[in-house]
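Quick one, tokens below. Sequence please?
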């Protein structure tokens, strides 16, 4: 089975990660093999404009640009964070023609789903393991048959992007140094920008990772979401976060105690709210096999159906 899928629908290149977990070298090799197949079949003939729709790693993006940019006058990338509701909007990223400008927005007649996908914010105090939970959820959701790709918005400038967990598993020191280098201040300007990302996000499943404090900045971001997962290592903080989410009109779908010293998860109830604990959300560990992480992933996927 391939770790990366590429197909062609008219002038749109549809791309997505496969269910098999793999490192970037394997993924880019599989992507290259599939592109060569499509080119050999004549399925990618070239033309004025190629639109690319779907998630891709940075190496795969470079690969696609290398193999296809000379065949098209311009290449545009779908961005779920921008555009008019109900329609897909692409950004021109490569152009060899005056017909298109870098950064130009292309709104297509290709309809987006009318049903708004859930926008689920993972919130709670600092050091609760929110980023670890986010990465575990991505892995589990990607392995569920017919599940939508979990589109993640990192709405806190802590420098810990989606790359962090995998790097930390291999080299904790490098992960920490990169995080420190990328970290920036949490300003009102950043909060406004992040809020606009959440507002415009129109993927079937959107997961938002926010900072660990009850602030006006987080209020600005979170009020654009639809649901909340509360994760905290301190049980006495749960009421404060529940009130914060309820005041913003968010539907609370899970309340999870993050227990760093436990050796197993504990699921108390699954309905109407997922309640329980998850053990050892430690940076650098693969948490995708935790029972609570799997239960939450199934819940989020169920919300999209």
């Amino acid at each position: 089975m391939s770790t990366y899928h590429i197909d062609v629908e008219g002038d749109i290149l549809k791309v997505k990660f496969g269910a098999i977990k793999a490192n970037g070298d394997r993924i880019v090799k599989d992507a290259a093999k599939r592109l060569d197949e499509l080119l050999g079949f004549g399925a990618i003939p070239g033309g004025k404009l190629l639109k690319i729709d779907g998630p891709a790693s940075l190496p795969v993006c470079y690969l696609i640009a290398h193999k296809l940019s000379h065949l098209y006058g311009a290449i545009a990338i779908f961005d779920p964070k921008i555009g008019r509701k109900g329609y897909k909007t692409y950004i021109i990223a490569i152009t060899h023609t005056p017909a298109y400008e870098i950064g130009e927005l292309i709104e297509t007649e290709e309809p987006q789903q009318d049903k708004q996908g859930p926008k689920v914010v993972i919130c709670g105090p600092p050091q609760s393991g929110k980023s670890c939970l986010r990465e575990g959820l991505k892995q589990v959701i990607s392995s569920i048959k017919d599940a939508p790709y979990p589109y993640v918005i990192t709405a806190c400038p802590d420098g810990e992007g989606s790359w962090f967990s995998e790097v930390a598993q291999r080299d904790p020191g490098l992960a920490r140094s990169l995080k420190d280098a990328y970290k920036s201040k949490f300003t009102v300007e950043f909060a406004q920008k992040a809020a606009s990302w959440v507002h415009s996000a129109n993927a079937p499943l959107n997961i938002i990772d926010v900072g660990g404090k009850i602030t006006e900045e987080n209020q600005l971001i979170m009020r654009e979401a639809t649901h909340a997962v509360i994760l905290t290592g301190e049980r006495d903080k749960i009421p404060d976060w529940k009130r914060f989410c309820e005041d913003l009109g968010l539907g609370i779908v899970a309340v999870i105690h993050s227990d760093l010293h436990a050796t197993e998860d504990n699921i108390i109830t699954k309905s109407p709210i997922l309640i329980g604990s998850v053990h050892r959300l430690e940076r650098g560990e693969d948490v995708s096999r935790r029972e609570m992480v799997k239960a939450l992933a199934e819940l989020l996927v169920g919300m999209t159906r």
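The longest strand covers residues 87-95. The radius of gyration is 20 Å.
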